[in-house]
Structures are given as structure tokens and as C-alpha cells.
Amino acid sequence: MSVKIGENIDLGEFPLLLAPMEDVSDPPFRYVCKQNGVDLMYTEFISSEGLIRDAAKSIQKLDIFEYERPIGIQIFGGDIEHMRQSAEICTKANPDLIDINYGCPVKKVVCKGAGSSLLQDIDKMVAMTKAVVEATHLPVTVKTRLGWDDNTKNVYEVAERLQDVGIKALAIHGRTRAQLYKGQADWSMIRDVKRNPRIKIPIFGNGDVDSVEKAAAWRQEYEVDGIMIGRAAIGYPWIFREIKHFFNTGERLEGPTIAERVDVCKTHLIKSIEWKGDKLGIFEMRRHYANYFKGIPNFKESRMKLVSLQTKEEILEVLEEIEHTFHTELI
Ligand SMILES: Cc1cc2nc3c(=O)[nH]c(=O)nc-3n(C[C@H](O)[C@H](O)[C@H](O)COP(=O)(O)O)c2cc1C
């Protein structure tokens, strides 16, 4: 059965979502994930304070492209009125949906009463969500965690109350705020939410999915409507097509060849330069090379070149060199 967000966003059967990731899920990275079959993507989280102050950095994050659809813009903040205003600003950017971040555990966000901090004040979370829902004609979705800490795992109640004020889907990261990214994600409460007969909206599971096997096993075990993947897609956007292929055919797809790795890395670089300009595009791409070529023995020398060269032409040349040098390596 097809999974739908609101009336109009049809994600097909068991969609795979790219998790919003600060400094990672920008348009160049989203491009290579889209090429590999991801069903729904989000921008990285955008500060509502930045949006209403018209801060250039926040406004730039609203850039979305037609080929990215369906795409959500994710916002965060601690002030209800500012979140309402930023929902209006986001609506003008014309995404397919607006997502609210109630999951970010980072101190500088939590200190301002934003992100996962709202898990400590569900009344305020509900009021904020209602304000955002009423400020836009677009579907509003939420991403959150199991609760603040081990003693307050309240996502079951959160899901009911947010559905009541009109959210159209909920993504749950199977950790508490106190856990940050430590330990293992526990999806059993995500299943409890999904099994709640009152819950009608799609429930997406998030946290630690990093292989086809895990995606298949957790789909069965936790009964979620789809899976959201973050870290495992960094440097490995093929994870989406591999999982999709397995679900569609029951067969494992071969991993990418060196030529494919080089090809996607080139595309990512070119898109990065297109979007950010030469200097920043080349600089910000540096963090990705090691991930794209993870597992290749004796890669260090090539990596050193990639992260120190200053021009697109030189980097493309090294990437071609990599293809020729390592094309026989099996990873
Ligand atoms: C570098 C990084 C940046 C992140 N930024 C965001 C963000 O902007 N918004 C958000 O909701 N979650 C953010 N997250 C959390 C991820 O969306 C996701 O919930 C988390 O990584 C767990 O999923 P995974 O195990 O598949 O990576 C971030 C995670 C990482 C690693």
C-alpha cells in the first residue's frame, strides 16, 4: 500500500527518506541521493530566528529545486510566534512540506528551548506545532526522539497529541536526547507508536540503519511505514538503491564499482561548485572524499591530493587517476 503524507504527497510503498543533516544535506548531496532513488528528502534544519531576521545563511538554505520533489524544509526554534512566522516564510519557498525539528540534542539549540528541548514541555510543543500547522497550507511533519531521557520516554503521547493538532507524518529517532548519538537506537517504542490504534499518520523509523539486511529486518520487526537514513548515506548514497532493489526483487545488488564511486564523487563536486562557487564548493567537498572511497587500500596518498588541491580541473584529474589506479580493487 502506498504511503501518503496529506492528500497529495504519494511516496509509494515503503519509502526511504534522507534524514536532515546539518552541513550535509545541502542541494549537492541531495542531488546524488535523488539519483539513487531516495523517496523523500529534507533540507538541513533552518533556524527560525535566522529566517525572521532575514539572515543570508538561513535564507540560502531555503533553496530547493524542482527535481528534488517531494522535499521538506525543516525548521527549528524555541519561540512559537517566530516559528509561526518562519512557517510563512518557508511556505513562500514552495516546498512540498514543512518539517519541525523536535529532536536536535545539541546544547546550543537546546539552551534556546528549541529542538529536543521541547520534549520536556509537551504543552508548548503542541502549541508550537498548532501555530505552524495553522500558518501554512502545506502538510506539516515532525521529527523527534523517544523522549528527553530514560525516565521520560514520552513519544507515545507526543505522537497522539501532535496528530491531534494536524501533523501529517512523524519520524522518530530511536534514542533519547540524553543518549545523543551514543549506544544503539531502540526501535521498540517506535513500534508501540505505530501499533497505537489511534495513530493514522505514517510513522517513519530512524536511527542506525546502515545496511540492506538491517533495513529488511527492521521493516519486518518494527512495522514502520518507511525508514529514514542519515549517516549511512554520507559517502554512500547507493544505500537507497540497494535497499530498494532488495525490496523490489529479493536480490542483493552489487556495490558500486570504482568507476561509479568516481562518477558520483565528480557529480557531487560539480554540483557543489555550481551551488556554492569555486572556493567554498571545493573546500566543503573535502569532507566527503574519504567517505566515497572508504575501504580502498592505500588510498591515503590520493586523498591527501584531493583535500589539498585548489582547482576543479586538478581535482577531476586526480579522480580520473583514482579510477585507473584502483579499478581492479574490490571493496
Ligand atoms: C552531521 C549530522 C547532522 C544532523 N543534522 C540534523 C538536522 O539538521 N536535523 C535533524 O532533524 N536531525 C539532524 N541530525 C540527526 C539525523 O537526522 C538522524 O536523526 C540521526 O543521524 C540518526 O539517524 P542515522 O543513524 O541514520 O544517522 C543530524 C545528524 C548528523 C550525523
From TrEMBL:
Keywords: Flavoprotein, FMN, NADP, Nucleotide-binding, Oxidoreductase, RNA-binding, tRNA processing, tRNA-binding. The keyword Iron does not apply. Belongs to the dus family. FMN binds at Q74, K143, H173, G230, R231. It catalyses: a 5,6-dihydrouridine in tRNA + NAD(+) = a uridine in tRNA + NADH + H(+); a 5,6-dihydrouridine in tRNA + NADP(+) = a uridine in tRNA + NADPH + H(+). It is an enzyme of class 1 (oxidoreductase). This is tRNA-dihydrouridine synthase. The active site is at C104. The keyword Flavoprotein applies. Its EC number is 1.3.1.-. It comes from Sphingobacterium thalpophilum. Residues 17-321 form the DUS-like FMN-binding domain. SUPFAM superfamilies: FMN-linked oxidoreductases. Catalyzes the synthesis of 5,6-dihydrouridine (D), a modified base found in the D-loop of most tRNAs, via the reduction of the C5-C6 double bond in target uridines. GO terms for molecular function: flavin adenine dinucleotide binding; tRNA binding; tRNA dihydrouridine synthase activity. Its cofactor is FMN. Signal peptide: none annotated.
